[in-house]
Amino acid sequence: MNAVTAARIPSQHDVAGEKPDACVTFAAVSKRFDDGTLALLPVTFSALPGEFVAIVGPSGCGKSTLLRLAAGLTAPSTGTLTVGARNVGYVFQDPTLLPWRSVRRNVELLGELHGVPKAERRAAAQAAIATVGLSGFEDKYPRALSGGMKMRASLARALTMSPDVFLFDEPFGAVDEITRERLNDELLALFQARHFTALFVTHSVTEATFLATRVLVMSERPGRILADLAVPFSYPRPPELRYDPAFAQVTGSIGAALRAESGSGPR
Amino acid sequence: MTDTTSDSVGAAAGVPVEPDDRDDFVPVAPKRSRRGIWRAVLPPLVTFGCVIGLWYLVSYALLSPSRRFLLPPPQQVIQGGFLTWSQFSQILDGLALTAKAAAAGFAIATVLGIAIAIAMSQAKAIERSIYPYAVILQTIPILAIVPLIGFAFGFTFRSRVLVCVLIALFPIITNTLFGLLSADHGQHDLFTLHGAGRWKRLWKLQFPGALPSIFTGLRISAGLSVIGAVVGDFFFLQGQPGLGALINLYSNRLEPDQLYAAVIVASLFGVLTFVVVGLVAQRVVGGWHESARGRDKS
């Protein structure tokens, strides 16, 4: 498998990086939970400024743990982790909207937590709501929204802080295929407009390929990086790209990397 | 964020909401139809009719005239208990006193119960040190400690209120604590990520999320504090008689009409508190929480 061999171990220079401008660097980072479970074997990679890195792997492989490490929600057991960013945005698997707040007030929440003055955070919320296409739904409560709309609201909330590093934890895992594709199209438009650096965890090979500049393939638990594949398509990527033979070739090699693991991997 | 950004994204996003998103858009609070109201009211009316019928049956068919005082027929209770003003005004005065004790006790229990639950939610150590005693408070039969309260605090209004507080406190503590601790993991992570301290987490996440559970506790406790007040009346007979004292009096004097009237008034008052708390809950959390909305949603 030619494509799989291209595992990219960052050089010492990359890790030390004179000016870490909105990037994420894992240097031999591992994680063992308090109960003794080894979730992540030492992992080394970096997401360079403006890169969209997707992480695919079977469920329970530690890819969410990887993201929680990057966000600082949990501390690494070994290794060093550098996140060069002013603001880190995190989009959770669930929309995690507060059900007692309207869409507008949900989107304003982060500004509230950071003590942003009311007028300012309201304006930021309004702009973010418009960006994700939820205008007209500002006063609705989450229970009145569909799954896709909740995810949009969740994305809008993260956008209000104008993050330069964006962490996505399988954000569209629970929405239907059609909605997911449209949300992916919109996310790419946003990526091109904002030039953030993204780590995107998913178990969908198609989604990873469509979105990312690079795809990291992870093994089953305890997770390690099996392959680091560049996705050779330029942005903007039209929705039809998904049906292009060249696209199938890339997803094929990612799939092969995943399968190569499941035969031999540790149980 | 700049206009150009929004524009380029807006172009990709297209029309804000497209058909598949609208499909499962749930309109909030559908107006209930006339038929729906009828369907909600009819079953309890039928039950009411059956109970009255049974009452008549027992009064006239099962009890001999000499024993009919055990359950006088409804019209006699209405005549003797409700329509004879001298009697009914006495019951109303008793109700006023009992209601005052119940309301004061309920208010204190609410504030105290929520405060204790908040303290317990903040540290496992506090929870561990208080919870066993809260359970004991609940399991001690209230009838056993009412006389003790009388000796310790005097047979005054204050003691009546204390009885209500003791009986109403536990459901508020447990339900509030449950609500405070049931905030979603992801939501906690969100607050952690954005540096929210204890206080912001409590007021912006845990407390609002706990409101439905708090109201569940309040509903139970509202009824309990009425019971507490009536029980208190039984023991604290000095001064103006409360409903409980009147019930005691009527049964000693073998005045069944008034006795039944007083019991009905006490029950209706209990139901009223339940309904009032339910309405407040509906106003406060009905907009976003399912369980607070019409329970008979078919």
In short:
The complex is a heterodimer of chains A (267) and B (298). Chain A is of the alpha/beta class and 267 residues long.
Describe the structure.
The complex is a heterodimer of chains A (267) and B (298). Chain A has helices at 12-16, 63-71, 103-113, 118-131, 147-159, 177-194, 205-211, 245-264; strands at residues 23-32, 38-47, 52-56, 78-84, 88-91, 165-169, 197-202, 214-218, 225-230. Chain A is α/β, with parallel strands linked by helices and 267 residues long. In chain A, helix 4 crosses helix 5. In chain B, helix 6 crosses helix 8 (157-181). Chain B starts with a helix and ends in a 13-residue tail after the last helix. In chain B, 33% of the residues are buried. The chains are: A alpha/beta (267), B mainly alpha (298). At the A-B interface, helix 3, helix 4, helix 5 and helix 6 of A face helix 1, helix 2, helix 9 and helix 10 of B.
Our count of helices of chain A gives: 8
Straight-line distance between termini of chain A: 23 Å
* Range of strand content of chain A: 15-25%
CATH architecture of the domain at 84-285 in chain B: Orthogonal Bundle
Distance between the termini of chain B: 46 Å
Helicity range of chain A: 25-40%
CATH architecture of the largest domain in chain A: 3-Layer(aba) Sandwich
What's the CATH H-level superfamily name of the largest domain in chain A? P-loop containing nucleotide triphosphate hydrolases
Shape of chain A: globular
The run of helices and strands of chain B is: HHHHHHHHHHHH
Shape of chain B: globular
String of helices and strands of chain A? HEEEHEEHHHEHEHEEH
Major sheet characteristics of chain B: none
Point out poorly predicted stretches of chain A: 1-20
